[in-house]
Amino acid sequence: MTIPVLPDPAFPELESMLSRKFGREIANYFSGSPLNRVSFLRTDHSFLSAALKHPTTSFLVFNDLNPLAKDPSGLEYISYADVQPLIGEDPYSKSEEQLVSEYNSTVTIPQLLFLGLDERNQQGLTFNIYTGSPFFALDVTPKGTIKSQAESLVQSLQSRGLKFLEGRIQAALPAQEAAIYAQARALLDWNARNPFCAQCGQPTMSINGGMKRTCPPKDMASLAGAIGGTVGAVPMERPDCATRKGISNVCFPRTDPTVIMAVVSSDGRKVLIGRQKRWPPYWYSTLAGFVEPAESVEEAVRREVWEESGVKLGRVVIHSTQPWPYPANLMIGAVAQCVPGGEEIVLKHDPELEDARWAEMEEIREALRVGTSALGESAQEGYKEGNLRLPAGTAIANQLLTAVASGFAGEAPKI
Model pTM? Predict the structure, then answer.
């Protein structure tokens, strides 16, 4: 598989006090979206209605979280005319408040997301002071009361020679497309995982352009209607729910912070790497783990490294971050250094790793040159069987290892 070129950071050529002190910004795969999310317009249904039908609007559709594409190296977008039989003439024709008041839990509403405007196209939609081509994502998975319409759309798209890319991770897309895909997949997954209110257990409704879910106070269906019973003519008052009081009246998408770290020995000559049992032979990576509640990033780095390897850390520095839409992680990349005398590896605390070891910088550099790949993929030409294997350049682990192998932890400029 050809590894895509990574996205450029914002203003890559700009010199500033921060860039001179800390080095240039690093952008990782799944970041670098070309879209302006204009999040403040998500509640404006006049804007969403205009965006929905504009001739420059693109719809990225997913079936069971698999995106539509011609092949693994490029997404395929479709038009309003394609999706109209599924979503209806205009799902934004009424205000958000009116739609909530008319909520009917027996009716399946296609999950539609407003992703943003591509402002590179100045021939796109103009709304107030904003101009660009609108982008939406749509879940076309056949289910509920829209099953037949969704099946018809899926079959129509497949008849054009298009396909839905299967597989858990899509890492062959061009960088900007990967960022759009990541935003769409993470939000569709979150909406699909939260059909019920965490407080009262009743069905929830998508609002705010797909970026929030609310627990409506009324339901046009009877309680039985929520699972297929009859529909009442008068909205039923639903049981009281704490989410309808105060400021906590909606459910927001979750993002799970995860630390991932390149750990350097106290003398700066070696890097700590580890492997899980399920990985291919000779394949190692940096250590990683979730940030727990009431824990700083630096504390999480120290805790995870000690739990998984027994190694004790001193200074921790954040290097860069990576959105990871499987399902909704933010990988917080760090570089950390071991305290003197804290380099002994002990695997008896947390059994997550099959092995952990210290690798010399030169071994890391050689592996980065010819031994990188995605899990299950072949290494580059020149790799010798039995040598170290490392993650591909689309993984933040690769960027962290590249940084320390290039002197990030030394006295020279950081990047």
Answer: 0.93
